[in-house]
Design brief:
alpha+beta; Wheat Germ Agglutinin (Isolectin 2), domain 1; three-stranded antiparallel beta sheet; homodimer; 3 domains; globular; Ribosomal Protein S8, Chain: A, domain 1
């Protein structure tokens, strides 16, 4: 399906499910962006889950987002808005505020699955900002040394302006993502050692039982995930991990928090000069001796998007999306 | 040697080498702090190197540090001050500024080896700040896929206030630190696979030839290191990697850049409440099923410091330090 058609389809699905149009279009755009960049795990395969959250009341299709400004900081109370809606707003606000103050922080409280967070940092980077974004979610990754999930695969994204595309890192804090574990399960591919635990907390390479990713670099990855919870959820007064681990009623709902920081590059040196130095740095990296081609952060995704005229969804994803669309009375293009 | 005596000795050495007293005491304090916390690789074993840099003019014992404020940001031109001098100042300035603006950034240009950067984030955390610090250095770590060093083992530290001690992460972006590689070499300990390359760019487990750490999680670690260079060195208009990789005259000198961000917790919720939530989170983590005791970031170092009444330096470190002290006319305690 062409990206345009897929965007329209997904947006229509969300609207029929009760989302206001502007929000539906934003969410569709962010999900299709992930598919375009080859990150299917953060793409439209998430649509059914998002709709389910809407039905349960965890995701609010008509949120009243409130922002409170204080100094160079903004607290964005997302009112359970879809992650992409809250995060696009947060990135735009952070960039605008940083233009006044040099650096700005937007703390996002009570949103839902934030999707591929590189979208938001790249959005800021294209506006001349150096951007940092982190998001906190439920315990789905092993804490280093534990036999159970204790922290989330909390992602970190950093993007800076580049001459053509932003230089954009987007990494989870686990050795393997939940999405890749699921793919290995579907395809029956044995995992490398040190990737995951089974539900009982034992190390395994069996894709059928592997369910808990191990943290990147042991204490580094789980420490990073823990601090990401502190910097977003605890600062927002909206803990996720403790609620889930204690099994409170709140802890059984889906919600996320996030933090976005924008730094106005032009406050420190002319933006063009910065971009020239980024280009110089990339040139030096690419000239390093290597057996194959060396890529810089964000490059693989960007190339994937450049050459993708047609998004090929996995048959099961397409089937599920089609069935959902039909159930909501949305016409599906042939 | 007691920490007090070691601090005095090291401070005296730096003073005799030409450092102003206040700076000498600060550097001694930061180095001894690392030894106290069991991070000898960032401790007083570095003293001879620091003195060598002073002789070469790379480290300025009498720097004129200049700061330029703009919005919520401060550029600190360190004038080749010792890393600890510039970084303590940066952390203090960031915390003070964040008290006015909610979030503040201090960009540190042209300092030297920054030491154990957890010192600076913990300093801010004790003052009620959530702190982030990163530092950029020379290419000493493999870029993912390359057969040579292309980025540095750029460290990231995040610390937040806790009820007793700060929760404090301090991680490098490599799977193994340069210090640990050196220790393995000294002790002749075979490395695990996937840790390092030799000087020719071949993977090796031989401690005699292993010299280039591999990045944490492949593209994640080297991507993080690359973005850390952008956020600190390129923003400061003082590139390190490109100069070194191109072999320019400047690239043969030792210098570092850094970025410190402070976030005033009390701007978002009462500090006591935040600390209570950090404590609750730690309690939940420690209650996870595990085969052994689970530690939280910063805990191992803090415990080490608590129980260390006497710092036992490696014989070679003590010898080198003693010889250096004597050569400068500093009396060494028996």
């Amino acid at each position: 399906m062409t990206p345009e058609r897929l965007r329209a389809l997904v947006g229509d699905v969300f609207m029929r499910a009760g989302m206001v149009e502007a929000n539906a279009r934003t969410v569709a755009d962010v999900l299709v962006w992930a598919d375009l960049r080859g990150m299917g795990s953060h793409g439209v395969m998430r649509v059914p889950r998002y709709v389910e959250w809407m039905k349960r009341g965890d995701l609010n299709g008509q949120p009243l987002i409130k922002t409170t400004e204080s100094g160079a900081t903004i607290t964005l109370d997302a009112d359970r808005a879809a992650g992409p809606v809250a995060m696009v707003r947060a990135a735009e606000l952070a960039a605008a505020k940083a233009r006044e103050t040099g650096i700005a922080l937007v703390l996002v409280r009570s949103t839902t699955h934030t999707g591929a967070i590189g979208y938001y940092t790249q959005l800021g980077a294209r506006a001349g900002m150096a951007m940092i974004a982190i998001t906190a979610s439920v315990p789905n990754m092993a804490y280093h040394g534990a036999r159970a999930a204790g922290v989330s695969t909390a992602p970190l994204s950093i993007a800076v302006p580049g001459e053509d595309e932003p230089l954009a890192l987007d990494m989870g804090s686990g050795v393997i993502s939940i999405g890749k574990l699921a793919r290995a399960r579907r395809k029956g591919e044995t995992l490398a050692a040190g990737m995951a635990l089974d539900a009982q907390g034992n190390p395994t390479t069996d894709p059928k039982t592997a369910s808990i990713p191990l943290p990147l670099g042991g204490p580094k990855g789980s420490g990073l995930a823990l601090l990401i919870e502190c910097l977003s959820s605890l600062l927002a007064g909206n803990p996720i991990l403790a609620e889930a681990l204690e099994g409170t009623p709140k802890g059984r709902h889906h919600y996320q928090n996030a933090l976005v920081i924008a730094i106005d590059v032009a406050r420190f040196l002319p933006l063009a000069e910065f971009k020239t130095q980024v280009k110089r740095l990339i040139r030096n990296i690419k000239a390093l001796p290597a057996n194959g081609e060396l890529l810089v952060p964000g490059e693989r995704g960007h190339r994937h998007a450049q050459r993708t005229k047609d998004i090929k969804l996995a048959p099961s994803v397409l089937e599920e999306l089609t069935a959902l669309a039909k159930s909501l009375g949305v016409e599906v293009p042939a």
